[in-house]
Design brief:
mainly alpha; elongated
């Protein structure tokens, strides 16, 4: 089970920058001054990128700790804390 946690840690670490890249690429690709839809305006993209960037960094931190082995032994009762 611990090997799965470490593999998933690597997945989280890799997935976070990829998600940020896809969001920024989508923003540059979809923002258009002649567009009339909401996806063509920069404000929704700024909001989306602003919200999901800290979430992606949190995924990277979570993956780092999983890869480091911090989640190998989880407490089963409050006495173990």
């Amino acid at each position: 089970m611990n090997s799965i946690k470490k593999i998933m840690g690597i997945v989280w670490i890799i997935m976070a920058p990829v998600i940020i890249y896809i969001l920024i690429w989508g923003a540059f690709h979809n923002i258009n001054s002649t567009g009339i839809k909401d996806i063509n305006k920069p404000i929704p993209w700024i909001i989306i990128i602003t919200i999901f960037t800290p979430i992606a960094f949190g995924m990277m931190i979570f993956g780092y700790y999983a890869l480091k082995g911090e989640y190998d032994h989880l407490p089963e009762s409050s006495e173990e804390l």
